[in-house]
Amino acid sequence: MLSTTGGMTPAAHEASGGGQSPTEPVGSVRHPGWTVAATMLASSLAFIDGSVTNVALPAIGRDLGGGGAELPWVINAYLLPLSALILLGGAVGDHFGRRRMLVVGIMLFAAASVGCALAPNLTVLLASRGIQGIGAAILMPNSLGILGGSFSGEARGRAVGTWAAAGAIASAVGPPLGGWLVDSVGWRAIFYINLPVAAVAVIVTLRYVMESQEGTQPLDWVGAALATLALGSLTWALTLWSSHHAASTMTWVGLIAGTVLMLAFLYQEHRLRDRAMMPLALFASRPFLGLTLFTLLLYGALGGLLMLLPYLLIVGGGYSPTQAGFALLPFSVVIGAASRFAGRLSERAGPRWPLTIGSLVTGAGFALLIRTDPSASYWTSVMPGMAIIALGMAGAVAPLTTAVLSSVDERHTGTASGFNSAIARTGGLVATALAGAVIAAPTAQLTSVFHVAAAAAAISAMTAGMIAFITLKA
Fold first, then answer.
1. C-beta separation of 358 from 367 below 8 A
2. Which of residues 291 and 67 earns the better pLDDT score?
3. Can you say how many angstroms the Cα of residue 65 is from the centroid of all Cα atoms in its chain?
4. In this model, does residue 218 exceed pLDDT 70?
């Protein structure tokens, strides 16, 4: 998954047919154009919200208060349910109907956006962000599920390609648009813009999208609850640890509780076997295990950067939110331009070398950011590192999709792709929790602490490259 850049996720590739016969028939679609439009509008809510909030963090902190222990939760309150529940969100659509659940997800997201915009304090904002994350965990997999169930063959590929392109545009436009809104109207406006998009998405979906569903298998509610509580406890403990630069008694309580809950989740999944939200049989595959670690490390490094760099530029360099938003724009542009070429290269060479080299190049870009000076010229201090990171990530996105789908047997490809998307978001969740150490730093020390974070990201990305080289076959 690359929600912050709009690159095609493993889930998107699966919906596009990953490995299925191009002639497999799918029921006729009365309004193919409107069906694609509905899914694009719905998913753009999650794509924009995944990128726009980063540039608003300093303004939210000034208005509602909060430091290193609280501000990361503006991001993580959204990422936590999205990470933990996205697999269940797809299963709920298969069970109750994808169109029905897409509408539910959109309306939940819109209602939560109103809560964010009207939030009188940080507690209400965080609660509303959590509900947004639940809405996104429902609408994202079901928007792709509708495309996968409505089209076949080349038409499916074109539909998902259009969906992915819309995601790229939404993610690229998000930070500059968000920055401009924060500057001209205020940070609350970034949540109000969701409402007209959501209204149109619901109308188009109800009027033009056909209902589809696949199974009646019981849903793994217990697994979903345990995963959410485990990730929440671990994230809370890591945020507390990083923001206070020390491990308190409450930190250890959170880490121990999160570990116990995670073990309970694994036991639940083992007990349910193939009926589980995350079948443990997937991890019998060495390549899949390696790709899971690869995704966690690479996307964790990326998630931390996309949160911390705008914060550094605004607080440490005096950038306006608009300027900080535009500072991220070249990243999305390079990813969008280079990903298709990288995908063709991966088809010829296999995923091992593109993933290895792509993550090593990404690590080199993070290493360049160790010299970042927010008061120096953007073009010489920030842009070189960002461009190299974007080139490296462009080389890794498409090959990762191919590698995940080929690392498990055919009956598990859908679950594997969804799980890999969830792991990518979990990487961002952990990185954002640890980023509290940077946000909590005094302004005078902010740049030097950011340099430490950039070095950690470089090590994480390069380690991901070594894991890909060791666990994947040539």
1. no
2. 291
3. 26
4. yes
HSE, side-chain direction, 13 A CA sphere, residue 126: 18
Strand partners, 7: 2
Its pTM stands at 0.81
Assigned token pair, 273: 């076997």
R_g (Cα) of the chain, nearest Å? 21
Tokens found for residue 348: 């010829």
Topology of the domain comprising 10-471:
Growth Hormone; Chain: A; (1.20.1250)
Backbone angles phi, psi at 103, to 5 degrees: -65, -45
The CA angle 84-229-86, to the nearest 5 degrees, is 10
233-258 confidence digits (pLDDT tens): 888 888 888 777 777 888 899 899 99
What pLDDT band is residue 440 in, cutting at 50, 70 and 90?
A: confident
Output the DSSP codes for 404-421: HHHSS-GGGHHHHHHHHH
- Our measurement of the distance from residue 400's CA atom to the centroid of its chain's CA atoms, rounded to an integer in Å, reads 15
Would you state the pLDDT for residue 206? 92
* Cα dihedral across residues 73, 78, 83, 85: positive or negative: positive
In order, the DSSP letters of 144-155 are HHHHHHH--HHH
CA 133, CA 3: separation in Å to the nearest integer? Answer: 13
Residue with tokens 């953007």: 378
Report domain extents, the chain.
10-471
Structure token digits, residue 128:
């509303």
What does the alpha-carbon distance between residue 202 and residue 455 come to, in Å, rounded to a whole number? 44
User: Which 3 state secondary structure label does DSSP give 240?
Assistant: helix
Cβ–Cβ contacts within 10 Å for residue 246, how many?
9
How far is CA 434 from each of CA 17, 242, 342, rounded to the nearest angstrom? Answer: 37, 5, 31
CA distance 297 to 290: 11
> What are the pLDDT digits (tens) for 74-127?
888 898 888 888 888 888 887 888 889 999 999 999 999 999 999 999 999 999
Task: Summarize pLDDT for 259-304 with one digit per residue, the tens.
Answer: 999 999 999 988 888 778 788 888 888 999 999 999 999 999 998 8
